[in-house]
Amino acid sequence: MRILGLDYGAKTMGVAVSDPTGLIAQGIETIRREDENKLRRTLARVCELAEEYQAEAIVLGYPKHMNNTVGERAEKSEALKSKLEARTGLPVILWDERLTTAAADQILMESGVRREKRKEYVDKIAAVLILQGYLDYRHMKEDGTKEEV
């Protein structure tokens, strides 16, 4: 079962996909938009990727505030969730993405990627971190090694 992972930002969307076993996430691309409110092409591309990878679900980053409240970005993610479900027919799981972009930037910095090149990869890496977090949680839950959150 393959799952897509999405890191939804103002002008970009990082995309990751799981391996067929649902254990490992890998980045596949960053979708760029000229305008934050123009999602038609972005949604079309996500649909193409979901079909290409035969995804059975989508995990969408949910950017809650550090105090666990929902702000404007999280509300936009909720709206995108509805659009993705309607457009793809797939279930969309909102997954807490707090600090994933900072973690992705740190990974790139530690890997020696130059500052000007980091922007090119950070969203894709953040999507990997979001999806991998969900996959790990699901795997632990199936094994019975973690109580439900």
Tell me what the structure shows:
With 149 residues, the chain is α/β, with parallel strands linked by helices. It has a single domain, classed as Nucleotidyltransferase, domain 5. Helix content is 47%, strand content 23%. The protein has 4 helices and 5 strands, in the order βββαβαβαα. The chain has helices at 40-52, 72-88, 100-110, 115-143; strands spanning 2-8, 12-18, 25-32, 55-62, 92-96. It has a 5-stranded mixed sheet with strand order 3-2-1-4-5, sandwiched between helices. The two termini are 23 Å apart.
According to CATH, the homologous superfamily is YqgF/RNase H-like domain
Structural class: alpha/beta
Low-confidence stretches: none
Mean pLDDT over all positions: 87
Our count of domains comes out at: 1
| CATH-defined topology | Nucleotidyltransferase, domain 5
- In what order do the strands lie side by side in the largest sheet? 3-2-1-4-5
CATH class: Alpha Beta
Level of helix content? 40-55%
Largest sheet, described in full?
5 strands, mixed
Gap between N and C termini: 23 Å
Order of H and E elements: EEEHEHEHH
**What fraction of residues sit in β-strands?**
15-25%
SS elements, strand count: 5
Choose one word for the global shape.
globular
Specify the number of helices: 4
